[in-house]
Prior knowledge:
The chain is of the alpha/beta class. It is built from 16 helices and ten strands. The strands form two sheets. A six-stranded parallel beta sheet has the order 7-6-5-8-9-10. β6, α10 (213-223) and β7 (226-229) form a beta-alpha-beta unit. The model has no long low-confidence stretch (mean pLDDT 90).
Amino acid sequence: MSIVVIGINHKTAPISIREKVAFSDQQLNDTLSADLAIFDEKLILSTCNRTEVYASVQDDTSAESLTDWYAEQHNIDKKQLRPYVYQLSDSDAIRHTFRVASGLDSMVLGEPQILGQLKDALKAASDHKATGSKLTRLMQHAFLAAKRVRTETDIGSNPVSVAYAAVSLARQIFGDLNKQTALLIGAGETIELVGRHLRGAGIKRVIIANRSLENAKTLAMTLDAECIGLSDIGNYLQFADIVISSTASPIPVIGKGSVEKALKQRKHNPIFMVDIAVPRDIEAEVGDLNDVYLYTVDDLKSVVDQNIDARRRAADKAEIMISEETNNFNRWLNAQQQIKLIKQYRQQLEETKQDTLKKALQRLKNGKSPEEALQFLAHRLTNKLGHLPTQAMNHAAHAGDIELLSAASNLLGLDDPASEFKED
């Protein structure tokens, strides 16, 4: 029985291929519910950056059959898909699972969202009874590995997006943001991301300013924010503790004079300002004003670059942990595979018992006394059960195999022969 991972991700395939193999909700449910002979257990992780199937399969399952199945699920020619697909098995598959859960295989190194997606994938597979002891244990161990990486390294503590870096700086200046007001200028993807991070940080009031009031309204509904036109910025600037701007305007939308006026109205309570736009949205001279903390996109890029380097250093440490956790899981897996030996031994004992009991009862029927039957029973069981261990230890003693003798003494509760050779 092997653990395998088959899939594609942002490293191996362009989005034009990734979107073709993404599982829709219905397709995901159908696949998990289907009784597929190729898999003993299965779990599907499908995100914008990766589509992977984690599975437990028989040892004789061919790699080609897995690729063929993967292509057939999405009606893609297997020759077209093969260059983009990776297949991993056993230790490589286990290690990959732990790296994915820990954010070490993500497009943004160390991002935490993938862990939640993996937990959702496990729940979906469990709900459809598609998983068993191996995949469930694999995922639970992966979650613990991810927790260890986040607890014992700084991989998740340094922001690596401009939007998140801007919000992190705001928190450094103001601490708790639940009493602050943010004025966000623009309605593009970056501003939307900034808004989401601010909401996540607990900010209560957000104002969206944009040239197109319709676009501002659309974003405002998403963020539960107010919306205004660019011409109204001067009237609202006095309320803003945080100003973050990212427009495509060819000229500044905030000048030094309007900020000076706002500061007087605020009685010089500080304003944190971030200009993400190129060309600038906020006049450079604003940075010369007292009570203004102005950062440009270059300032944030420097922070992001430093944080990326810090994450990479943390990732090096995390990789060592992943190797340790992979070895730990392999030990568990090997132990599970050896359980059949225990069952085999118990079956052997049961057969010996039944055979000996049958012969002892036959002696009673033949007129032997109960004492004689019991003597026979005890003698035969002793010889039967002791024969193989005694024979193995005898051979080991003549061969000088102290290691085997030590193992036997441990199993049988005897004195360890190796102790005679240890120093006092």
